[in-house]
Amino acid sequence: MMCADHQPVTIPPVGDVAIPRCAMVLAAGRGNRLRPITETLPKPLVRVRGRALIDHALDRLEEVGVETCVVNVHHLADQVRAHTARRRRPRVVISDETDALLETGGGVRKALPLLGDDPFFVINTDVLWLNGVRPALTRLAEAWDDARMDALLLVLRLVGANGYEGRGDFFVDALGRPRRRRAQEIAPFVYAGVQMLAPRLFEDTEAGSFSLNRLYTQALDETRLWALPHDGEWYHVGTRAGLDLAEHRLGQHGPYSDQ
């Protein structure tokens, strides 16, 4: 099965690696840590370097040849709909969560009929990254091993996690096998908000609100979750401090919205 309502075409190759045809951008959150900005402007439309956060994510998908992107909406959904309707590539399909916010796992699960049967990218809207020698999404596709993986997370060294204030998420060995940090530990790697998932990760899940973290735990137990370190610059922009840092480091265009 291809992305819903999408005609088969040749998948753009990267060497002998096929880039996923479909992706999802998680855009339904309320953006509470960006209040008061997000009281009238949804987080995906907050700007850094003169572009809405959602466009930064869609630009990354376009540059590697992704054709269709599902965007879930909840908070101030009409604004996100109107903004993405102007986008030509990738083609944007809306997954409506206005009746109930489904969290990350529930949101992706609801969108599965739009994403098809093949592995797909998922990107958070509150992260920005600069690529290294090759695009991060290309590197994820190159590293994907369908026989071993249900999830492949882009991770970043804690020391380079601009705008991030936590204690890290994972320890990752030389083969890319992650382990969650324990309560009193500081982990050297942070989840970078970019991942590649197989639809089978959601087998045996029920409709409703749940976090992807629940599925990560299951995949870790089965050695089906892997990690790939990012080799470029990265910013968490889910807070005002993170936005200001990214704007300062990456250039100044402001203000925070395009309205």
From TrEMBL:
Tell me if Aminoacyl-tRNA synthetase is a UniProt keyword of this record.
no
Look up keyword Cytoplasm and say if it applies.
no
Ranges of residues in domain MobA-like NTP transferase:
23-152
- Give one GO term, molecular function aspect: nucleotidyltransferase activity
The EC number of this protein is: 2.7.7.-
InterPro entries recorded = GlmU-like, MobA-like_NTP_Trfase, Nucleotide-diphossugar_trans
Keywords in UniProt for this one?
Answer: Magnesium, Nucleotidyltransferase, Transferase
Q: Which PANTHER family match?
A: N-ACETYLMURAMATE ALPHA-1-PHOSPHATE URIDYLYLTRANSFERASE, NUCLEOTIDYL TRANSFERASE
Name of the protein in its database record: MurNAc alpha-1-phosphate uridylyltransferase
Recorded source organism is Roseospira visakhapatnamensis
